[in-house]
Amino acid sequence: MNITITELTPGFVGDVSGIDITQPLTGAQAAALEAGMDRYAVLVYHGQRFTDEQQMAFSQNFGALENTAGGNVTKAAERRLNPHMADVSNVGADQQPLGREDRRRLFNLGNQLWHSDSSFRAIPAKYSLLSARTVVSKGGNTEFADMRAAYDALDDATKAEIEDLVCEHSLIYSRGTLGFTELSDEEKKMFTPVRQRLVRTHPVTGRKSLYLSSHIGTIVGWPMPEARAFIRDLTEHATQPRFTYAHKWQQYDLVMWDNRTTMHRVRRFDESQVRDMRRTTVAGDSVTVEQLAA
Which of 143, 152, 207, 249 is 20 to 30 A (C-alpha) from 238? Predict the structure, then answer.
């Protein structure tokens, strides 16, 4: 059976069938899926009953896996997954929902903000692959925004203005907007801001896109209030319904997206229910702009 990708939203989201990705891929299959990512940016797979090892193996068809260290406040003793898997669930090691005041839960509420995974790293992520192991009965959808289409829709004057702008990204900024400001000295050092271009060019298609995220705290060389107001305007533009897709999760769905050309966010859900979601992240291979010396 051949791989088929059916368009869900024009030029943005594709539904993949004709392949069991829990099994090893051929080189041709991996290339076909990567070409699908270049075309769409979000691919949806249904009925993929992964183990953690299978998910990691599938993800490695597209590059090296990113280590989750530096992207959360979970202590090593609290971790329930492999370090190469991001635990974006609402449960602890006892498999029960985290308490309302649990610091891990409060930190993870930042996932409800529009963002690009690992834009807070000097070398930002390539792909994210999110596997739904246990879903909730209502809510918890993940929304995606097409940053290529959002860039294309800007007027020429705005495109010229933003072409060479550089932003600072940090988890300190995104969590701070929610009032999560009590960080240890170690966490502050771990979340040191990095610099990223505001406009990125896809290395295969050559298509330009906005590189936005809630992790942006300022634009280099701009007064911070002006920078944040401008980033808010761009984000409102980029997340209009005409640029977005909402995925309603079914158990054993896998959704794969390109962090270089999309933003995403999770929607609220009943946190008395278990929502077990496990993400692997394919590391990027280059900086978008040179970083300042330490």
Answer: 249
